[in-house]
Amino acid sequence: MTTQKNNTSAAKLQAVKGMNDILPKDMPYWQFFETTAQATLKQFCYENIRTPILEHTDVFVRGIGEVTDIVEKEMYTFIDQLNQESLTLRPEGTAACIRAVNEHHLIYDGAKKLWYQGPMFRHERPQRGRYRQFHQLGIEAIGFKNPDADAELIAFCASLFERLGILKNLRLEINSLGDSSHRQNHKVALLAYFNQHLDELDDDSKKRLSSNPLRILDSKNPDMQTLIENAPRLIDYVDGEAREHFTQFTNLLDALGIVYQLNPRLVRGLDYYNRTVFEWITSELGAQGTVCGGGRYDPLIAMMGGKDAPAVGLAMGIERILELVKQNQTIETPAVDIYIAYEAIAQNLAMQTAQFLRNIKELTQVYLHLNPKESQSFKAQFKKANQMQAKFVLILGEEEFKSNIFVLKNLLNGEQQTFKTREEVAAFVLNTKAVTTTIY
Ligand code: HAM
């Protein structure tokens, strides 16, 4: 096995570039997101699915499309040395989810609404809001043909973003990619247009002219934006049932009072989409402002070997959402309810009392001072309790131990109370209603 030279010496080991540690100080935000998202998902009756982080490379090549940025340049792919299989760290969740749905025949008895959350991997150039390991919450509504499923996904986002306090910072952009015949007609027009402007195309786009001209519209190259702006619009080629589907979708959004903008340039970067596509975007995060994207992908399930079933889904980038949440509010680590400070003689009692208090589910945080023998004077213990913003300190010193009493000090108002039993201590703390009831 080969390791990097500086990793074999005593040099400090570092995380891979673009792959971040999530530290305890960030955890209140993650837990706020997760508890809020899970409560909202439950209300909308989505079921959780968890798929492996590694899949056969084909899952993504067939699922996402060969001529996409993700498959062409961004996948972490390697050959499993044991059996020479090509494996890939998942760059997104949809293809993996559909692989699992097909493998386990999950829609044999009807449509399913699924959600997942976890790390995804893309070999992109790291910058603010763009990482090589990032986290998505994804939802897939599988087996639903009509636009009410599309609208329900948007309604879910609106509820979740409102609860996270960021709906006001986001705009919803929508478009329709129509059906394959519409995209074919548009492609002819697009090819004619780009061929007339060959000298304005960058190298990437020239390559895509023959393989996948729609992807040229996805280009972020600033020099090509005017060219892209004036290109034929796919939405103008969408008619018949697909047009009707889009009209019903927008009618439902209107009925829900959800504000949106039609963006005819919105094509999304993955090949599996048809009909509805959408993105939730903010202008407050710099260049990486898309916090959520999705759309309909009716042909994908059959393309991946399953039965012919329509579907629509989305995924949101949790890091981007949390950055927006942080700009709006501070979420503190919840304070400790009871800090148990004790002297060595009372160690058994302190441990037993901590165990008793921790068995009361309403007391979410009971901190037991460890190591009272090693220079941990009461003064030092109180200092720590204050630093941790504990609400109460339960004092079990030699004196209290010998007199068989529990002394409880309220650090918020300085009042001190004496109790005979630990049950009385617990009842008093719970009665003050100062305990933390939410875990995040
Ligand atoms: P996507 O647009 O590739 O769609 O990714 C969804 C979201 O993931 C983006 O809007 C962004 O917030 C976040 N994201 C993507 N790449 C990065 C990155 N390198 N660093 C940080 N955040 C990132 C999908 O993945 C589709 N599977 C969505 C979907 C589900 N469509 C249908 N069902």
Overall form: elongated
Strand content: 15-25%
Cα distance, first to last residue? 41 Å
Largest sheet: 8 strands, mixed
Bound molecules: histidyl-adenosine monophosphate
Give me the count of strands. 16
Average pLDDT, to the nearest integer?
92
Computed over alpha carbons, the radius of gyration is 28 Å
Helix content: 25-40%
Number of helices: 16
Strand order of the largest sheet: 1-5-6-11-10-9-7-8
Low-confidence parts lasting 5 or more residues at pLDDT below 50? 436-440
Q: In a few lines, what is going on in this structure?
A:
Helices cover 37% and strands 19% of the residues.
Please give a handful of descriptors for the protein shown:
440 residues, alpha+beta, eight-stranded mixed beta sheet, five-stranded mixed beta sheet, 37% helix, disordered C terminus, binds histidyl-adenosine monophosphate
Describe the structure.
The protein has 440 residues and is of the alpha+beta class. Helix content is 37%, strand content 19%. It is built from 16 helices and 16 strands. It has helices at 5-8, 27-43, 57-64, 69-74, 94-103, 147-163, 180-196, 203-211, 225-229, 240-256, 300-303, 318-328, 347-358, 378-387, 398-403, 422-431; strands spanning 47-48, 54-56, 77-79, 86-89, 112-121, 133-142, 171-176, 261-262, 274-281, 290-296, 311-317, 338-342, 366-368, 392-396, 406-410, 416-419. Helix 2 (27-43) runs antiparallel to helix 6. The structure holds histidyl-adenosine monophosphate. The site of histidyl-adenosine monophosphate has 28 residues, from strand 6, strand 10, strand 11 and helix 12.
